[in-house]
Structures are given as structure tokens and as C-alpha cells.
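Dear colleague,

Following up on Tuesday's group meeting, I ran the structure prediction for the two-component complex that the binding team flagged. I've pasted the input sequences exactly as they went in, so you can double-check that nothing got truncated or mislabelled along the way. The C-alpha cells for the whole assembly follow below. Feel free to forward this to whoever is handling the docking comparison.

Inputs:
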Amino acid sequence: MAKTIAEINQKIREGKAVVVTAEEVIGLVAAKGEEETAAEVDVVTTGTFGPMCSSGAVINLGHAKPRIKIHSARLNKVPVFCGLAAVDIYIGATECTVNDPLNEVFPGDFRYGGGHVIEDLVAGRTVKLEADAYGTDCYPSRRWDREFTLEEVPDAFLFNPRNAYQNYNCAVNLSDRIIYTYMGVLRPKLGNANYCSAGQLSPLLKDPYFRTIGIGTRIFLGGGIGYVAWNGTQHNPGVPRADNGVPLGGSGTLSVVGDLKGMNPRYLAGASFVGYGATLAVGIGIPIPVLNVDILRSAAVPDEELFAPIVDYSTDYPEVTGKTLGRVSYADLKSGSIEIDGKQVRTGSLSSYPRAVEIAETLKKWIKEGDFAIAKPVNLLPCPARDALEGDE
Amino acid sequence: MVCRKVVLHFPRESVDKPIVSRLVRDFRMEVNILKASIDPDEAGLMVVELTGEAEDFEQGLAYLETTGITIQPLSQDIRRNDERCSSCGACVSICPTEALSVERSTMEVLFQDDLCVACELCVRACPLHAMEIRY
């Protein structure tokens, strides 16, 4: 029953494609079996919405009169990277406001940072630029103060070096003091357990061998359209896998890019972690074309069969000991409490499941309405486990 | 029996008055202090759960008003900005009273303000700043 992307796109254009979310496909497989579901379903949509620190935006500010070659600059008092051409800048999600007290009075609030500037831009709010330069014969200006909105700049695109982690840790605190981490506030002595993945809706958990998600894949990014640019930084598909092929800890990642002007602050929001820093919550949805039954089988793995490692963030994480306290399924994490060392521990999530559902549903609607074609990857992402499987065939 | 959580705002002049013991001794009320602070202007704020017979309760509150203290029901104090909340759940595992909880069928985060004791842990823990204080 193997299908091609061209055949699926033909059905999308005709408005005949069968598109379901990664949550819905689980029920379909249970009711009809893998073969029948794989024959019937053309595309499975995934979604995730959570803090993703390795994010930022490239902005071209347009030229000043007289011209300026910016040497250092702030947007709403948040420093930006200026080591590019005259008026090209990059604003990183975790950059803090100048004069932010940081963790001087612990734990700091980090109420505003680069992620918040990006949200302000996408929401259409005015942002204040303060730029300094040393002046050259061709770029004589030494200072540029300007208020602008996203609409007024020539180019702005999100370019995130590492997003959409394939699986993640469940964080706990074994020490006897409260700790403030990028996994949230962790109460002492296993007071709570925080996880950060949409589980059965999470894009890379549903294509564990990167069979369809590759360079050039068209995606939902921040409420607009984006693309997979490359593998993300720290892409590490070599971690141990369960029998169903899904990595048992943080593994693959994506680098993504997309026009900021088409995005929506509902899916791209500035975020703060007390005692840790500022960041950006990013919404990503990726379509998985059901080309064969193997791809369908992976896309239909439920929360019960997806596992996160439990990691102590008071010692093992900061000291890189590599030690884990065991594994827990996303079904258990989502039940509200898990058992660790015989103790019932309440769970909290940093990734919004309802927003992930909304993203998968939105992407489904776009595809069903014929607006969103599936892009065939120009190149697949590195994944030795996939290469080994295909070598066997 | 009446039981209510209220916020008492003490003007600077009343901060040194032994108000809690008067409530206990003269109005037979049970007072559970959930939070107490004095700000740099020396005005005070106390979040308390008051329990007592209806008549005592009424007279106790009337007494408080004579001291210049203003009384505000607690449920107005911590609010959720529903537009801002993404229902991630970063707040639920640190909320001591389970005023913040998850509807498991949809994973939506619920806020029951009648269970809230205004400890404010969620205010700082919320990554999107959706929990707001309105004292």
C-alpha cells in the first residue's frame, strides 16, 4: 500500500486527503489495525508548545539616513547581536534586559528578555531600538534611536538553532532545599516532578527514525509557516531506544526557520523561569506523511509506550553524572502523580498539551483545506539507527 | 459557623494593635494566619482564614472596621489571566492547596479561587505571567 508524497499532495489539492492528529490516529489503529489505518490515513499531524531556549530572530532594520553600520544595539533594552552586516541583527530568546538584577537577589524574576521582545514584535507592538556605531566614510551615523513595529522592517525571520527536542527529562529535586531551574520550581525531597513534552503529540517522538522529517520539511511554526533548516544543535539520535524505536531520553533536535511576519503571539510567547532566566515558548506542528505501515506504526505510539528518564536536578543534572532515577511513561506523568522510591510525587508540565492539540488541529485544518502541501525533504537528518534498519531490509 | 478567607489591609496607625488576640478573645473567632507582611511604608497586609459563629463573625468584622482596617475577600486577590494562560501546568505541582489542578481528560489547568490561600507561589512560577496579584 506504499504511497508517495506526490500522491498525498495530489489528494490534498483535490481536498480528498485523510488527515488525523497523532492523538486521533492512536484510536484508529486500536479500532482498525495498522494495515487498514495506514491505507486509509494520508497525513498524521503533530504539535507541541513549550519553552525552547535556543530560539531567536534575524531582523534587517532597513537603512538609516545617513547610513549607520551598527556596532552595538538594544531592542527594548535587550542587547542584540550585531556582528553581521550594517543593519542586520539577531535577537536571542534568553538575552536579558541591560540592568536586569539577574540572580543578584536570588531567585531573580527575569520578567523581560529577548523572547518577550520577539512576542512584542509578533503582537504588533512598538519596539524601541537604540543603536551605536563608530562611524565610517560609507556609514557615517554614530547613533540611531528609532521606534518601529514588525510591519515596518524589511525582513524578520525566526531562526531557532535547537527546537522540538525528541523526548526530554522528567526533573526532580532530591536535595533538602527548593531549587529554581529551567524545568521550573522544584520542591525539596521529591516535592514534585516536572516534565516537558507533548508525549503522544510531540513531533519527533512520532517520527523517531526521522523517516519523513528532514531538511526542507514544511511545518507550523509560531502560528505561521516555517521549515526545518537543519538538524538542531546537540542532535544526538544515538541514545538507547525502546523496542518501538523511540529514544528513551533527549535525542534528536531540529533547527527551524520561518517568516516572523506571519506568526501569532498565541504560539510564540515570551516566558520567564524564576531563578533561571527568560526564554521563548514556541509552537511547532509537523505533518507526517503516512508513506508506509512502519511510519504509521511509529506515529501511533501512545503515551503509555513513550518513556522519559527521571533526573535529579539538584546534583545529577548540574554535575553531569549521567545518572537517572528510572523511567516513567508519559501516561503516568499526565495522570498527575508518579511513584519514585516508593513515594507518590505530584507532576507538573512545562509544555502545554491543550495548546499542542490546538496546533495539531490547526495544521490538520490547513492540510484538509488544501492550503498546506507536504514538502519532500531535500535531505534526511542524521540517524544511524534508521540507516542500520534500512541496511537490513 | 461561618468560615471565610479575607485580606486585611492595616493602615500605618493600626500596625501595632493586637488585633488577632482581640478577635480570638472578644469574638471567639478562630484565626488562621496564611500570610502577613509590613511594607516599607509600614502599612500591613494579612491574609487570614476566620471561623466563628455567625453573630460573633459579624461583630468581629464590625470591630475590625472601627480600627481602620479594610477587609477584602480573598478570591479577588489572585486572578488568572485566561488569555495569557497556556494550560502548561508549571503551577500545579507547586500549588499547596490544589487550587490549581488539571482536568485530566483535556489536560486544561483549572483555577478554583475558593481554594486559593494567596501564597503566591504560582505567581512567580508561571512562565507566561498569567497569574496576577490584585491587592
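The two ends of chain B are 27 Å apart (CA to CA).

Cheers,
M.
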